[in-house]
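Final report, closing paragraph on structural work. Over the funding period we assembled a curated collection of sequence-structure pairs, and we close with a single example.
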Amino acid sequence: MTRTVTLRDGRELAYEEYGDPDGDPVLSFHGGLSSRLDAAPAHAAALSLGVRIVSPDRPGMGRSTFQPGRRLLDWPPDVAALADALDIGRFAVMGWSCGGPYAAVCAAKMPDRVTTVGLLSSAVPFELIGTTKGLSGDDRILLFLVKWAPWLASALLRVSIADASETRLFREIRRSFPPVDVAALKERGPVVDALAFIKESMRQGTAGCLQDYRVFGDPWGFDLAEVTAPVHIWEGAEDHTGPPEYRELLLHYLPDARLSIVPGEGHLSLLQHQAGAILADLTR
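Its predicted structure, as stored:
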């Protein structure tokens, strides 16, 4: 069931909980063009491990209120307010894909509260790697359009996701992702349920997702050396969505990081199939 907390500036932050409500807390930050619902495949593993997953929507996405001019550095205060409202003191964080930077910035700016970090198929700071080469064609197009033609980016998102049928959207995913990711979506059941996490991202329209892509392309605004908590980087061997050598970049700049490359997993399948190992590591 979706719940909300009211933030100091009056915005509503929506979130979903999975797993054991009395378990060890893990805050999960969703990917781009996604929502609080993308942590749902980890529910069973979290329940069996005694882990409480709290998965918020970012501003303007899902059911969370839009925040004009949002930056990556604006996220930790929202997370702190959410944790306070839920009476959570210290917690682990994990971020999938474009959610990775949000996990990292929370660890950097809340070192007294964040215990461990999981970066799952994470985005990287483009200002450090110096290229968007290796990203999917769709990601590179959107990064360009949100900067130079936001009206066209909005129209593209409306046609391809917001107003598209689930059947047509699934066809596009089959074109863009490896077979293991397509199979993982099929495992979630009917196509309407399987793609709900994507469709939900545009519940309020395209503005929140466009803003999320602006943040994705902008400098992170902090030094990775500030992330002093232990970091575990998880990647699927079949995931080819990132710039070249991005794993090595994260390992180089993060003070306490290690990498696991999981054979046979892709971008969408990683959390769905490896939730037990990921959550056990975060809450060990």
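The mean pLDDT is 96. The two ends are 27 Å apart (CA to CA). We thank the funder for supporting this effort.
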